[in-house]
Amino acid sequence: MILAQQFGFLDEYAKKEIRRTSLKAVAIPGYQVPYSSREMPMGRGFGTGGLQLTLALIGAGEVLKVIDQGSDDSVNAVNLRSFIEMTCPGVGTTRVTGEADLIQSRHRIPEKPLREDQLLVLQVPYPDPLVVVEASEEKRKQLHGEADYSRLLVKLYEDIVKFDEITISHRYPTRINDHYVIDPSPIPRWDVPKLHMSKALVLLGAGREKKIYAVPPYTKAEPLAFEDKPFRVEAFLDEQGRRRACARCGCDNSFLDEYVDSNSGEQVYRCSDADWCDEQLARQTAAEVIYG
Amino acid sequence: MLEVSAIWTAHVQQQNYRALLDAISHPGRVKSILHQQGGLASLAVLATLLDAEVSLADPDDLLEAEDWPLLQASAAAPGEADYILCRGNRAARFQPKLGSLPSPERSATLIIYVDSLHRGELKLSLKGPGVNGNADCSIAGLDPDWIRRREEWVCGYPLGVDLLLVDDSAVLALPRTTKVEVA
Ligand SMILES: [Zn+2]
């Protein structure tokens, strides 16, 4: 195995372009800043946009966490993490949210509130929420510039009327700083409120679509909604209307994944965020030790 | 303080980039810039951001001739430049590019050299994205005319300019979204 000589795999020109782009993205919250997006040694669509951001950001001595659908151990997360470990000597990795300086994630924002000194990179497959109502990128850019989302709102309202509720489970269109509407990446509705006035900077990278955008800290992030149909996060209620809890740690205020128990055939719910689940379980065990 | 060539190294540029990212994410926050002894922090900022893909204007001749080939950026007039390096103690004398409605990023970033970001006669109160409530800063060596001109440049959001105020060793950012009041 030949190790890349270059710290962070990318050449310094590629990093500079990503750095310039990310600064513009923070200065114009929610605006999709175009950049040239280099080829990576993995297919676009495997988080190359997020990976390029991470490689341009990270320095020796920093600690990185990589998660995919809430898990540090899925194939995608493991591949991305080992690629960064191999190409960035001196960078540490962790599974513990609170220990990470940088977190690169697909599909989830950690349950544990992020701090000001942390930075979240989200991998984005489809950055433009206006694609569903306008095919021409040129026209979409004009609409974004004017903050004209009337057609998107009509589309959203039609869906609500048809199904009598908000059916969008992921990628909920969210307005940033009263202007640009973003695709917040395939995070569930549950995670969208975490973007609002977040203490941590959130950078979003779409490698295939060659766009970088940002939700700066302490910035409004408001899911599109209507007075008669307010935005709601997933409720996770059982048949009796009670909030379901994680079968492993008992937590009843986390985003749950649904499994089918292979023995009983019953539905089982567990925290989607693996580190959160571990932390709740450890806390419980500690409490049991103390209180017997 | 660093030895002469360190601002051109990847390791230092990574750290300076993170200082810039932190500064622009938190308008009003003063972030240290690694720079060479006797050199300008503004040169370290330019070294971090510039290459042959972008253009630079230096209307106040703050750069030495030997800096240009290292920066690699093409020289441009202030009205056309992607980056403009200038002195804060004189009033603005140019109209930077502000971008367009579909492409607001095609706007200038101004790197304004000031005397101090820690204490000064110009007291500013900041609000907006990145600011938790209010942020105060006081700057020495920034002509108040910059604040008035900036107001004209950023009033057509998302068009605008982003300001990086740099003293001998640190940076403070005023992105276009920041509401600035002179206190
Ligand atoms: Zn759990």
Automatic annotation (TrEMBL), chain A:
EC numbers for this chain: 4.7.1.1
Enzyme class: lyase
MF terms (GO), sorted A to Z: 4 iron, 4 sulfur cluster binding; alpha-D-ribose 1-methylphosphonate 5-phosphate C-P-lyase activity; metal ion binding
Key words of the record: 4Fe-4S, Iron, Iron-sulfur, Lyase, Metal-binding, S-adenosyl-L-methionine
Catalytic activity: alpha-D-ribose 1-methylphosphonate 5-phosphate + AH2 + S-adenosyl-L-methionine = alpha-D-ribose 1,2-cyclic phosphate 5-phosphate + methane + 5'-deoxyadenosine + L-methionine + A + H(+)
Any one GO BP annotation for this protein: organic phosphonate catabolic process
Any Pfam family the entry gives: PhnJ
Family: Belongs to the PhnJ family.
Task of the protein: Catalyzes the breakage of the C-P bond in alpha-D-ribose 1-methylphosphonate 5-phosphate (PRPn) forming alpha-D-ribose.
Protein name from the UniProt record: Alpha-D-ribose 1-methylphosphonate 5-phosphate C-P lyase
